[in-house]
Amino acid sequence: MPENSVNLNRSGIYEIVNVVNGKRYIGSSINLKNRKMYHWKALRNNDRKRACPKLLNAWNKYGESKFVFNVIEYVDDKNKLINREQYWLDYYKTYERGVGYNVAPIAGSCYGCHHSQEAISKIREKAIGNTRSRGEKNHFSILTQSRVSEIKKLLEEDNLRMQDIADIYNVSVSCISSINCGDTWGHVAPGFKPRNGYKRGQDCHLAKLTESQVIKIKQMLLSGDKAKAVAKIFNVHPETIRRIRRGVTWNACA
Hints:
Blueprint: E1 12-18, E2 24-29, H1 32-44, H2 53-62, E3 67-74, H3 81-92, H4 117-128, H5 145-157, H6 162-169, H7 173-181, H8 211-222, H9 227-234, H10 238-246
Antiparallel strand pairs: 1-2, 1-3
Helix pairs in contact: 4-8, 6-7, 9-10
């Protein structure tokens, strides 16, 4: 669809095409206008932390005038957005060397992407948000770092029930469970081994998301997508997305 004849205030699949060699980048968004603005800002600013590296290199080589943003198809059912993106990725194979600019071969993930530690830290910091400090610096916290270290030591010793530990520190059992799983206070005692039977992230049998999906969610939030709309795409409750944004859950996933 020619850019001047489409409505970008919709959700769908888009392509960024190099008119010189026909190579393209495929993506999806719940708001195509916002996504185009996100890409163009990153590319114009030579922002290597936000722009797709292959696309940015080509942009710098050929110049902005050689790239166009096209809508491939509208996808009004946001639950089908990722599936349709995968279809077009496989159709054009833009993730193959010499064919296109996509780094990730799987829609809704960053499989194959390798970020620097600095970029990972920036993504995590911005995804959590400046209004929420972690650990004891959070004014909502009733625990201190030293007490969490003690709790983790008790969990590793495995002599007390979680309920007993919760009673000692005057917190709920779910608070202790979250510490054990690494959903909260994950930065304390990085060598901590969770109590048997409890796993964190996608290894937890209760997890509805994978690490690659959470990375995609954080990138969508950074680009301005709303939590409610993102939740519909990944078929989870909006509060799940908000907790990821605040760093309450999945804080170890960049």
